[in-house]
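Example record used in the benchmark description.
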Amino acid sequence: MAGVGRQSSNGEPSVLEYQLGGGKVYLADLAADGLPKTYRKVGNTPEFTVTVNTESYEHSSTQDGAPAQDLSVIIDSGGSIGFSLENFSAENLALFLLGEASDYVNPGIAGMSGAVIVADGDIEDAGYYQIRTTTGLAVFGITSTNAIVIETTNLTPVPLVVTQDYTLDANSGIIHLVADSAIVATAIAAGEGLTCDLTADASATLVDLVTMLSDIEKDVALLFEGINAADNNKRTYYHFHKISLAANGDANLISAEAGTLPMTGQVEANDAFSERVDVFTPVTQV
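Model output (structure tokens):
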């Protein structure tokens, strides 16, 4: 009798069972009961692999002279997956960096006054400095509405003039002091620093914050939707009920080719399911 999903009516293997295609990867955090929460599509994954590992006990008999294996028993088994992410979203970066993604409260929205961006005695000619709040929060995406004033910490503060004494990269919030600026030279000689006033702008850039090594336990449910071009794009669904994720190599941030975030994961048991992995194949859309 033909097996479930078999393409040939006579029970013979079919070329439609060849695997040629791609797929989509979805990840979900696990609830307390082990069931997946909301799935998130991670974007393009140029490769996705599954590995099955086994450990065997092997015994040899010497009853007839030279040792000859007479027993092999699998005593342990496990599985792992590997895939690469091409979408450098905040959530995907957090996966790779074993960190967390969250909304960053850009100080450019609320503005600030008198924030020390260079401490007294630390100014250097032609130096680069990040505009920050007094507590160290970086400012990004400074707009034309964010009127900015950079001045020295002299008892009578002296304002720096843009282009004459410094230039501003509004996107990064970094200023570059102009070499041989008279005002900067005077401030350096007097051991002064620099402060910044920034008016508020509700339209200032919204920024995501990704931390690193702040969440090293990355247990998720993973759903892989395999799409087989050899079989009219029929789908196969791999439900990995619990995967422990980790980075698996380098993320090349400077490259002539599209960068990737290589990931690996160990297949683990999930008490909410009887099996570690369920595969549904092939699924045809009606």
